[in-house]
Design a protein that fits this description.
Number of domains: 4
Oligomer: single chain
Distance between the termini: 121 Å
Number of strands: 34
Structural class: alpha+beta
CATH superfamily of the largest domain: Protein of unknown function (DUF3247)
Shape: flat
CATH architecture of the largest domain: Roll
């Protein structure tokens, strides 16, 4: 048994060493790899030389290396990366070489790849299995058998199981039976067989393909893409592609001096989560959102084709149809807007006043003591100073000075609608490591401000800074840490900031400023009254007025920006102050506050509205309303009164005509009943009196119908005249 298992292992391994992955299973001429290519395959490596990280989660990788002669380059990828690589790979031979095939191991399921192989092998063989299980499935294959008895050539007939009795026990053994071309049948105990060599090319290919397919299942996540290049001498080969990668992130530091002027520093965070180190690569960071997607290209796809039976008439001519056409309506472009992130505080006054002052006795006497940059007991953190070049300095001064030791490593430039940070020095980053790279460090225009938005916080504004990007760089979205004076002041989130763009950034709750809002709404008197196409129009405004009562509770002058929401259909009134800035969603009003100063700001907006009244259906109640609201004068009132009288007369005529219709319906129903009774009574001689009575009543009803018909015609004539009068009055109506 042990000898048989060893023989099976040697047999499979000897076949696997020559295995090659092929796109199709049956190939007439196997692919021949030149000896020079095999020799160079181990040394032809293309290291990563350039990496471009995009903010949409894609990385552009560029590899460069020197190859010699007929070269073969193997690149290993995770299976999740292969679709992106196949979609974007570019291969260049910068010498006189010629790029050949770019191949990769099949992504077909193992069951699909083995479905056409005419045998199978279990990974674990029980007693009596092993090589005998393989050979019995290769019945008819030509082999050379080498055993202790010698060597023989023939075709496999069968593998039989026999019991062999020894002095101690009875064992089962497998015997291989082959037949030579001369008709000689030989048998070999597989325990004595040293090797079995397959002579048929097809059988060898089946074994090789089975071994390759089985080996590929051991590491499902590994894919090798092989690039071949044919040429002479040494030359440079370039391979580039895109793969999914972590988005590069930005984080900023803002240092405010005593006057509130900002010093700006930006860092980029990059991650190398690949299986290969970045050694002296040229790194670029691109800000923007190029379109990118994943398309499954490595997996084989098959298109369904219907099975068509053989037609009875084989002389049918193919039909030609007109091309299909259609109109595709393109929708409006969607504009994605990113709202500025804001963080609200839930700390109340009682909680703040209960905080200790680093061991000092007593509570906080004033909320202003907690303002960023405000000295506590006249001390601005002097104990935290340190020596730099023999002089006492602070973290803020050192960071904004020329001796901070931090220099920016990026150069920015626009590439179409995108913006690229090109790292000037080569970057080395080991696998599974991340790095912080400085990209910007400069003074910027700005000032310390407070920002109030009623929808975010009702009673207090947020401390912040008004920042203007004075660089030529597009600053990507990221977090921001603010240092005010020599202390941490807060954090914020900043959206993408273009050059010359101005942005408000808040980083802490301003506990030294209080705001109270009083709201008042009303309807303004009518501004315009007119009649258009028989419609009486009253134009007026509905107004809304907000009064902001602002109190500066500190001894420091402040600048406060109040954000007032822009509403569709509303506009600022003539009496309202004009905003200093207008954004897509807010009016911004700048209020300058002196120390301990209280101010009021009243903002008024109005909405134009219109009430309409059809002159043809005007009522007495509506006319009384016009008079009460002073919409009209006496002359106009008289014209409207006449229209109301005409409408009243028309209504009376309509009422009479409706009553005639009801009476006619009743008479017709009664006459139907009389006719039925007369018909029934005519068959008896005793009912003559009753019949005469029914006939007399019917005569009276006919007379009434004739009278109503005359009255109906007269009313219709009156109605037509009134309608003409009404139309003339409406046409000639004007407001004086």
């Amino acid at each position: 048994m042990r000898v048989r298992n060893i023989l099976l292992i040697v047999f499979v391994c000897s076949i696997s060493t020559s295995a090659q992955v092929r796109g199709t299973r049956r190939v007439a001429n196997p692919v021949h790899i030149p000896a020079s290519a095999v020799e160079n395959a181990g040394v032809n490596k293309l290291p990563i030389r350039r990496v471009i990280l995009y903010s949409n989660g894609v990385a552009y990788i560029e590899r460069r290396g020197i190859v010699t002669g007929n070269a073969e380059v193997n690149l290993s990828f995770k299976q999740s990366q292969v679709d992106d690589v196949l979609k974007s790979m570019v291969v260049l031979d910068l010498g006189q070489g010629k790029i050949g095939a770019v191949s990769y191991n099949s992504s077909a399921p193992i069951a699909s790849r083995m479905s056409e192989i005419p045998f199978s092998v279990n990974p674990v063989s029980s007693d009596g299995g092993g090589i005998s299980t393989v050979l019995v499935q290769l019945q008819g294959a030509k082999v050379i058998v080498t055993s202790a008895k010698g060597t023989a050539t023939g075709s496999i007939l069968t593998v039989e199981r026999k019991q062999v009795k020894t002095e101690k026990e009875t064992q089962m053994t497998s015997v291989l039976v082959i037949a030579s071309e001369s008709g000689e049948i030989s048998s070999f105990d597989l325990n004595d067989v040293r090797s079995v060599k397959l002579l048929d090319d097809g059988t060898r290919r089946d074994i090789n393909e089975f071994a390759n397919a089985t080996a590929s299942t051991r590491r499902v996540d590994a894919k090798t893409i092989t690039i071949t290049s044919q040429g002479m001498g040494q030359r440079e080969v370039v391979v580039s592609y895109t793969i999914a990668a972590p988005i590069w992130k930005t984080t900023y530091r803002v240092v405010l001096d005593a006057e509130g002027k900002p010093f700006f520093q930006g860092w980029a965070i990059v991650d190398n989560i690949g299986d290969e180190d970045w050694q002296n690569v040229q790194l670029s960071l691109v800000s923007g959102s190029p379109i990118s997607f994943i398309q499954q290209l490595q997996k084989p796809f098959y298109r369904y084709r219907p099975v068509v039976p053989t037609p009875r008439d084989l002389q049918l001519r193919p039909q030609i149809y007109e091309p299909q056409s259609g109109n595709f309506k393109r929708g409006n472009d969607e504009v994605l807007q990113t709202e500025q992130s804001q963080v609200s505080s839930t700390v109340n006054t009682r909680q703040v006043q209960g905080l200790p002052l680093n061991g000092a006795g007593g509570g906080i006497d004033s909320l202003a003591l907690l303002q960023p940059g405000i000295a506590v007991n006249g001390n601005r953190g002097r104990d935290n100073n340190f020596q730099l070049d023999g002089n006492e300095t602070t973290v803020s001064n050192a960071l904004t000075g020329t001796n901070s030791g931090v220099t920016t490593a990026a150069k920015g430039e626009e590439i179409g609608d995108l913006f690229e940070y090109k790292i000037e020095q080569p970057v080395t980053l080991m696998r599974d490591r991340s790095a912080l790279i400085p990209i910007v460090q400069t003074k910027m225009e700005g000032e310390r401000v407070s920002v109030y938005n009623e929808a975010v916080r009702l009673d207090r504004p947020f401390s912040g800074v008004s920042l203007t990007n004075t660089t030529n760089l597009t600053l990507e979205s990221g977090s921001m840490t603010v240092i005010d004076g020599n202390a941490y002041a807060g954090e914020s989130l900043m959206e993408r900031l273009k050059p010359k763009e101005k942005r408000l950034i808040s980083f802490a709750l301003d506990l030294g400023t209080h705001v109270t809002v009083r709201d008042k709404g009303d309807r303004e008197p009518a501004k315009l009254i007119k009649a258009v196409d028989g419609v009486f129009q009253v134009h007026y405004y509905r107004s809304d007025q907000k009064t902001y009562e602002i109190s500066n509770q500190t001894e420091r002058a402040k600048v406060l920006y109040i954000e007032y929401p822009i509403q569709d259909g509303w506009e600022l009134s003539d009496t309202s102050p004009k905003p200093d800035f207008t954004t897509q969603r807010y009016y911004r009003f700048r209020v300058e506050l002196g120390p301990l100063e209280d101010k009021k700001l009243t903002i008024s907006v109005r909405q134009p509205l219109m009430d309409t009244y059809a002159l043809s259906s005007l009522t007495k109640v509506e006319l009384d309303l016009f008079v009460k609201q002073n919409y009209i004068n006496e002359s106009t009132r008289a014209q409207l009164q006449k229209l109301i009288e005409i409408r009243s007369n028309l209504a009376e005529i309509e009422r009479k005509l409706a009553s005639f219709d009801e009476e006619v319906e009743k008479i017709e129903a009664d006459q139907k009943r009389l006719r039925s009774n007369i018909e029934a009574l005519s068959k008896t001689s005793e009912a003559k009196v009753l019949i005469d009575r029914y006939i007399a009543k019917a005569n009276e009803q006919e007379t009434r119908l004739e009278e109503m018909d005359k009255e109906r015609k007269a009313l219709a004539s009156q109605k037509e005249q009134l309608l003409r009068d009404q139309a003339a009055e409406i046409k000639g109506f004007e407001i004086k």
